[in-house]
Amino acid sequence: QVQLVESGGGLVQPGGSLRLSCAASRSTFSLGAGGWYRQAPGKQRDMVAFINDAGSPNYADSVKGRFTISRDNARKTMYLQMNSLKPEDTAVYYCNAFVFGTGGYKWGQGTQVTVSS
Where are the alpha helices (DSSP H) in 3-112? Predict the structure, then answer.
């Protein structure tokens, strides 16, 4: 069964940067529209950024100007570049994307991002 796999999380100081990646567990599958979501302890999972099938992005107000969502030309990997990170960005980050050939959207397992000095 095809799943999405995230990577790139970790511990970073305030003001630092991280880049998250999301790809299908089997490289023959490509991605359509999708987004990044995050969930902090005790809070609901919220959308951070979304990219439609044409490549147009949308962002939550809290990350506009700091985060950038993108997808490679081969549609194999979706990225989230996170700059000027703040402690309030600390959460588990999940990707969710349409996976061609499976007929639907898939979730990744999540990757922890911790912003702390």
Answer: none
Neighbouring CB atoms inside 10 A of 116's CB total 10
Question: What's the Cα-to-Cα distance from 82 to each of 1, 62, 102, 104, rounded to whole Å?
Answer: 30, 12, 29, 27
| pLDDT value for 112 | 98
pLDDT at residue number 27:
86
Cross-strand pairs, 108? 4
pLDDT tops 90 at residue 103: no
Amino acid at 22: C
pLDDT, position 4: 96
- Residue 110 burial (CB count, 10 A): 17
Separation in Å, CA 27 to CA 35, 54, 57, 81, 98: 19, 21, 24, 22, 14
Side-chain-facing half-sphere of 14: CA atoms under 13 Å: 5
